[in-house]
Amino acid sequence: MRILITNDDGINAPGLQVLEEIANDLAGPEGEVWVVAPAFEQSGVGHCISYTRPMMVSQMGDRRFAAEGSPADCVLAAMHDVMKDAPPDLVLSGVNRGNNSAENALYSGTLGGAMEAALQGVRAVALSQYYGPAVTDAPDPFEAARVHGLPTLQALLDRGVWTADDYGIFYNINFPPVPAADVKGIKAARQGFRRDMGFGVQPIHSPSGRRFLWVTGAPQQQPTSPGSDADVNLKGYISVTPMRADLTAHDALEALKAIE
């Protein structure tokens, strides 16, 4: 198996090293693992592509490249330049530092990389490590992902739903904020929503007197609706959520015929 990995935390991020370990085990001795990752952190860029400017791609080692762009840019660079003669069989994006459950998924560059791969017709999975009091200051905050990443991916590749339609399915995996030994298992879960916990801004003044705005987040330990991704994560389960890039609100189409 030929695997491409990327992320949004940058090519030197510790989560990418965890994903390289997982990918090498998944690919096996006859497989290949390629890295095309952002040269700098790209958290929160979603499915952004560098449509109005070129990006520099630098080779950092054997099958290892850094791109001055987003995770989606990295996938495009890999598919149409770096790996154009032998495209990947699978794209893995992560392991993100922090969860991409619930509404976080909408902003995530980690998911943006997986989404672009799916749009390019390649099987894709985004992986993220939920942070919390039990893991944030642990010697290895990524322990749950490191230990359970390979069997979770193997189960998904063996028994998951993979489609070849226009908006093919890709997957969002979030590892819970607990030590590896406390992970209770895997749950298929829908995307949740944290009510009254959206992003905001906080104004500050620089030493020169100029006014700036910092984007602020919200606490990540609040419960969401039962059975959703963040809910099962906070209960100690790995969440696996099937996703599509199709943004149509299909449930509203029939009612909308009233305006025709």
How would you describe this structure to a colleague?
The longest helix has 17 residues, at 143-159. α5 links the parallel β6 and β7 (170-175). By secondary structure, this protein is of the alpha/beta class. It has helices at residues 14-27, 71-82, 104-107, 109-119, 143-159, 229-234, 250-256; strands at 2-6, 32-38, 57-61, 64-67, 90-97, 123-129, 170-175, 185-188, 200-205, 211-216, 237-243. The strands form two sheets. It has a nine-stranded mixed beta sheet, with helices on both faces. Strands 9-10 form a two-stranded antiparallel ribbon. The protein contains seven helices and eleven strands. The protein has a single domain, classed as 3-Layer(aba) Sandwich (Stationary-phase Survival Protein Sure Homolog, Chain: A).
List the helices and strands and how they pair.
Elements: E1 2-6, H1 14-27, E2 32-38, E3 57-61, E4 64-67, H2 71-82, E5 90-97, H3 104-107, H4 109-119, E6 123-129, H5 143-159, E7 170-175, E8 185-188, E9 200-205, E10 211-216, H6 229-234, E11 237-243, H7 250-256
Parallel strand pairs: 1-2, 1-5, 2-4, 5-6, 6-7, 8-11
Antiparallel strand pairs: 3-4, 7-11, 9-10
Helix pairs in contact: 1-5, 2-4
Domain Survival protein SurE-like phosphatase/nucleotidase: 3-195
Keywords: Cytoplasm, Hydrolase, Metal-binding, Nucleotide-binding
Pfam families: SurE (PF01975)
